[in-house]
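Below is how a single chain appears once it has passed through the pipeline. First comes the sequence as given, then the structure the pipeline wrote out for it. We keep one example in the README because the format questions we get most often are answered faster by looking than by reading.
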Amino acid sequence: MLSARLFFATMTSMQTDELEEYLDSLQRDARYRVDAVLRESAHETTQRVTLVCDDESEQGLYVRKYIKRGSGMGAAYGRICEAQKNGRRFRYIPHVVDCYTTGEDDVVIMEYVQGEMLHDAVLRCGASFALAADVFPRLCDAVSELHEGFDAPIIHRDLKPSNVMIARDSLKVIDLGIARFYREGARDDTRHFGTRSYAPPEQFGFGQTTVRSDVYALGMLLFFCLTGRDPGPDARDEGFCDPRIPEPVRAVLLGATQFDPAHRYADVRALRAAFCRAAAACGYGSIASAGKPSHQAPPSQVVALQPKVRVFEKPRPRAAMHAVFERIPTPVGVAWNALLAFVAGVLLTGCVWAVFVPNQTDAAYPLWFRIVEYGAFAAANIVFAAYALMDKRRLYARFPRWLRIAPRRIAAGAAAYFAASLLAVSLLMAMVSQGLVR
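Resulting structure:
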């Protein structure tokens, strides 16, 4: 009888603790107002939120992640939060404010990282060795912080251009949702995640991921910085042969992306040092002391890059329509472009028809006037409008330097051409009507 009472008392206590924890998590959730939903998937929802204070004022921007418990994701955030609460400071890892559970989800609150994704930076600036020399050493330092800042290395496992955020004076590695801790003696990962263009073979069932797995992904990121394109399956098989990749750097890429992890660089420091040596061989001097993270290198050991202006110093504005299309799936953008091309084609066909088969009003004007009106001015304005409205992501990916043209100049030029054409057609129409020209 006594043991039964103890059992029920224990169960009641456990239920009470769980209820208190649940109510506490609800109160924590209520402190934040959702500003935008950044991403949704089966296992994770990412929101941009603001903190609502007791006086109803709002503070800052944060990222809130709901991660399904049992999905095998998000374990790294708790370890990072604990380390930061114990006084650790990380330069390249977002600050994790809070971690708690609610319902079936683990919840993470962290700083909202300002800046632009590496993917957008390469589109804007254009892929180049100068860009790689600026970004890649700092990116290596960021991953080294994950590998060396904890008792067991944190393996990111999803290093790709959209998970690297860059501002003028900072770089941060984000989205540690599928990061895992290295476990001595484990045969392979319990769950296989990652982006195939950048993830190593062992990440999909060929063995346990280690620090050399992130070395592989960094090699693929270096390829992206140099060429502006995702490394397809043929890139490594063809030995990264590309006129934009100098031979010393190509050797670094090969050393980082070997199929067998044992044949890759032993760690990120070794990869960084090899890249610095290759950059020096290509005339870029000593980017930073080989093997030592750049933020720890004495100023006397850091040599300015050529050219001296950092590639991210003055971000250029992006076209408004391009910013809109960044928020929608690519297939929707392709369908929109197809519809836009169809409508523009119909209108251009109408222009040709109006020139050679004019209606009663247009027939009163000479052929040369109809050619100027419909063939030059009307058709050109239709093309300008279609270009302004189209989803240009694929165009920018193929011709990255296109983004370097300021959108304001393009818009101003198109508007000026439209106004000039309208004025010219009106004047010509008046002159033909008065018989001044035939």
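The longest strand covers residues 58-68.

See the next section for the split statistics.
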